[in-house]
Amino acid sequence: MTTQVHTQIDASGIQSFFAGLALTSYSKILAASTIVHSMLGYMLGSSLAVGMTVRKMITTTQNNALPGWVKSIAYLTIYSAPAVGFVAMGPMWRNIVAPATHFVVNTYLCTSKECLVFDVTNTTSIMSWSFKIFITVFGLFGVFLVKKWRCFQSEFIEEEDEYGRTDVVEYKPWRQRMLANMIYACGLAFLYHAISNSFLSISICLLIYLKDYIAYQFFNLKMNIYSCWCCRGPNFIRTFIYIYIACIL
Which of 20, 80, 117, 158 could bond to 190 as cystine, CB 3.0-4.6 Å? Predict the structure, then answer.
């Protein structure tokens, strides 16, 4: 009796792996790109519009479904015992906020004929067009604000040295550096979830995270080996071992 072992390759894992490599390798370039800034502004503006829409839906539902005295007792309980409100956040998100958010996002992204054809007599069409216009306007407004305030863009400052020569220095704001770190962290998350083996995923993430340090140590080792080879003598092997241990430590 023979046992056959089959290896199954997950396409999503391969995509996550290459996406993680791209994000970790080009995080600083992406953080300085104006296209990424515009996308981030659109995401922030549209997220704000989605949050306002969900809040309006929940408030309208509460006003129509719950009597006034029930809401008064609920507010009084939350104000007197904040721990009760904290405990109720989980069920409220799971049963009220999350379904409303999914409904708004799915209606906004709906591309069916019923959603795209503008018909004043169809409630689905009116709601879909209302969400599309409202969220898109807020997204474009977010792009405008990011462009206007130059939130993540680099600043080029002219500095003059003691000899009168002018040099242009690029100054990266803390927001751009934070954005680069966030993109880098997302890349590490993609790499971690790309492989089912946790030990191998952590090892790859550590290698990617320490790649600059490892490259620096290998460069020092190469230069020390070259210097030892040029000045080799009877104690070459012992000197090489000492240098190798010093580079590792």
Answer: 20
